[in-house]
Design a protein that fits this description.
With 570 residues, this protein is an alpha+beta fold. Helix content is 41%, strand content 11%. One of its GO terms (biological process) is methylation.
Length: 570
């Protein structure tokens, strides 16, 4: 680093000195901790091979739309803003920061105390004139709590004499690691991923919030441009903590606490201590001197880490081996129009009668007949029954389910939808035979309907996953190779902490989920078709969710089939 670079870096360090002094003067306590800034990825003193470095922003534990940060866990990892190795130009947007122990800290130690006076809360933003105007307008904002925090931040940071100025001075001026700020070239790294749509939805939601606020409070334009509003939204959503302060549930920005990096399983816990009137962080285990102090951002799919935090976890695996990475799959019920399949429409081929004509969706049922009879011909209207079951939950013809490498409820819902989608008339009669509400919706068929139906469902699953795989420009094997070829750009590898690397980690994780379901579909079909002795061998080679599915569903179908065969012989 040249002399100018050192001077600029020193200015940054001085900002953090001022920040820490401000907190201590206000009554904050963290005597055994220190902030460290890493100029390059290799400066991280943790030197742990299973940790990466993270952005200094903290994000909340929310759903796909960002919610308040909770106290769950995630795998061991340090994620930070990565600078180019060997760069001479100091760049705040590429520095990494972390909180380290200056000495050994025992378990159960309250290592951070931040007084209420240093917290920025939702109520403070709502109390501003702009906040009151927005509150009275009763706007349908995408993230109202975040907006009030943003309003205070955006207005107060313009005051050079603000009490919070030392805090504002250490906030990152840019958030270029956040996907909503990525360039078109960087977004192209996510080609094939549903995350691209979520990024657009997040961007659109922020724009809509800004425009709604402008309509009722035009003075907002003097406080923040749209770009500044977007910066504040992601800064707040990645840093706020959901707290209960004196009995009031709120969200708050907590200086210093929001600089702890992500690590799983969690080593610390945090809360608002009403007796101390302060936010506290307590160690759950001993921390050695020099080691970094972590918070846990929770068990999350990488798409949430990347969208809300600006990083992806390369080994996003829990201690029990579970990987929370997900892929959203869309299952659409194909129904022809009245008269059967106009141009551009697809009939339900699984409901064709002997003449090859699919049942007509929309034909009325006779009153009082469960399952429904055709009002004209007296024959059972399978297409109408399927449509009624499919839309019973009030959703559309296309249903999206997030699935991971697991035999959890979402996987079971996906398989249920596939069973209904490919169901023929006899299978639908069996489903509806116990009354129209025996199954609440098309997601509730949790057991196989027979060899033929399950085989067709698995074929549909295989077709669906293969089609999704083809949307990506690279294969899973190519992703694995690229991520393994060096983390600092050597040998064509992807630079550590770069947006490209995090994007590649994200799509690799999606492909691993899709590959799992390709394998599940193949294994399930083999299990349905093989002989008993072959099935016993097949079962022995399975584990995890794949084994659970085969034992719960495939084995059950085979058992029912053997019973049917015995009855026919009798």
């Amino acid at each position: 680093m040249d002399e100018i670079g050192r001077d600029l870096s020193q200015l940054s360090i001085n900002r953090f000195d001022v920040f820490e002094k401000w907190l201590i003067d206000a009554g904050a306590k963290f005597p055994d901790l220190e902030l460290r800034t890493y100029d390059t990825p290799t400066d991280d003193s943790t030197n742990s091979s299973d940790k990466e470095s993270k952005l200094p922003e903290k994000t909340e534990q929310g759903s796909d739309t960002v919610n308040d940060k909770g106290e769950a866990n995630s795998d061991k990892l340090l994620i930070g803003k990565g600078g180019d190795k060997g760069t001479k130009e100091y760049d705040e947007d590429k520095e990494m920061r972390g909180v380290h122990a200056k000495t050994d800290i025992p378990a159960g130690n309250t290592c951070v105390v931040v007084p209420r006076s240093c917290l920025i809360t939702v109520e403070m933003g709502r109390a501003t004139p702009l906040g009151q105007t927005i509150s009275l307008a009763n706007l349908d904002l995408d993230a109202p709590k975040h907006v009030y925090l943003m309003l205070f931040l955006l207005q107060d940071r313009k005051n050079p004499d603000s009490f919070f100025k030392p805090y504002y001075d250490i906030l990152p001026p840019k958030l270029s690691n956040m996907p909503i700020f990525w360039s078109k070239q960087e977004l192209a790294y996510l080609q094939g991923s549903y995350l691209l749509r979520q990024i657009e939805e997040r961007r659109a939601a922020i724009v809509t919030d800004y425009e709604m606020i402008c309509a009722v409070a035009p003075s907002i334009t003097a406080v923040a441009t749209l770009e500044e509003f977007m910066w504040a939204r992601m800064c707040v959503c990645s840093r706020n903590f959901g707290l209960v302060i004196n009995g009031v549930r709120t969200s708050a920005l907590v200086p210093h606490a929001d600089m702890l990096n992500h690590y799983r399983p969690r080593e610390t816990k945090w809360t608002y201590d009403n007796s101390l009137q302060a936010f506290t962080i307590t160690t759950l285990q001993g921390i050695s001197g020099g080691d970094q102090i972590y918070d846990s951002y929770g068990q999350k799919c990488n798409h949430r880490f990347l969208l809300n935090y600006g990083f992806a976890v390369e080994m996003n695996v829990e201690q029990d081996g579970f990987c929370p990475n997900e892929v959203p799959v869309v299952i659409t019920l194909e129904q022809g129009g009245e008269g059967g399949g106009g141009e551009g429409e697809e009939e339900d081929k699984h409901l064709a009668d002997e003449s090859g004509v699919a049942g007509v969706a929309g034909t009325s049922q006779q009153d009082g007949e469960e399952g429904g009879n055709d009002s004209e011909g007296g024959t059972w209207n399978a297409a109408r029954a399927k449509l009624e079951l499919w839309t019973r939950d009030g959703s559309s013809m296309s249903k999206r389910v997030r699935v991971c490498v697991s035999n959890n409820d979402n996987t079971k819902s996906m398989m249920s939808l596939l069973r209904v989608k490919v169901a023929g008339k006899e299978e639908l009669k069996a489903i509806m035979g116990g009354g129209p509400y025996m199954y609440r919706s098309a997601k509730d068929i949790r057991f196989g309907l027979g060899v033929n139906n399950e085989t067709l469902a698995l074929e549909e699953l295989s077709r669906m996953t293969k089609k999704m795989m083809m949307e990506y420009p690279t294969t899973l094997e190519e992703d694995v190779k690229a991520l393994a070829e060096g983390e600092y750009g050597e040998k064509g590898g992807l630079r550590k902490y770069s947006n490209e690397r995090h994007a590649r980690i994200q799509v690799k994780g999606e492909k691993e989920v899709l590959r799992y379901f390709e394998r599940l579909a193949d294994t399930g079909r083999k299990g349905l078709a093989c002989k008993d002795e072959e099935f016993e061998v097949l079962k022995e080679g399975l584990e995890g969710g794949e084994r659970q599915y085969v034992m719960e569903v495939v084995a059950g179908i085979r058992k029912d089939e053997r019973r049917r065969e015995r009855r026919e012989k009798e």
